[in-house]
Amino acid sequence: MTSLSSLLKNSHTTCPTTYSTFLLGHRGARGERLENSREGFIYTHRLSHHSQDRLVGIEFDVQLTQDGKLVVFHDDTMLRLFSRQSRIDQCTAAEIQRLSGGAIMLLEEMPEVLVGYRHIELEIKTHNRTNYSRLLQALKQCLSQSTFKQLPITLTSFDVQLLNYLQADCLLSTFKRGLLVEPISSQSNPALMSTGQLLSHTIDTALRLQCEAVGLYYLLFNESFVTQCRRYGLSTTAWTVNDTDYAKYLIKLGVNYLITDYPSVFLNNEILKIR
After folding, report:
1. Most buried among 19, 115, 178, 254, by the most CB within 10 A?
2. Closest CA relative to residue 241, chosen from 272, 201, 195
3. What is the DSSP letter of 125?
């Protein structure tokens, strides 16, 4: 396997350097404040105002509650963050907000902490219990509001079936969409991605779904993939990038957005200055 030092050493001769790379806060600023929380979103928003156009947006997650609301939360349960076994799809939105002490927001409350960003990635979480009809209804109810239509939102998901539904919906198809891809553990085929296909098929899948963006686990990016994305007009996002040395390599490749848990660390690093 090629070492990181070798990649960085050789990247100036093989990778384009004329493309700007921008920063997105992961779940707000997951490494610096409580993830997907009101406090974290306010903190990241303030950071962006002093970022010299380097921290241009955020990524956050939403999922459906028992009462058909969209709550800004990543995990299936509240165990990791709030020491509660409660499953998100078995709780009402009011219960989740109460158990989180008011830290967790609903999607409908988000515009106040999103205004002014240039790029927002809204990841829609699904699972094997997802009721797609209710999920789409909830998304349309929120995103039909004028406050959301004015925001630069890209709807992202690992779920190809959901992206098919978004593509077919008259309202939701008006938003930019992005395909998320990560490697999965498979003894029979260790190169298999979360799409059920090889990485080489990712761009074809994204284009078939009429996506405008592709988001990859950061170690999957290479020069050929970025070049192909650029050729077909697909924006690229790498997640989750917390190593500033590896970030240099991704910038050399020309990846458009880096999602990080530590936006303040990256803002203090000269590598993210716009060329």
Report:
1. 178
2. 272
3. P
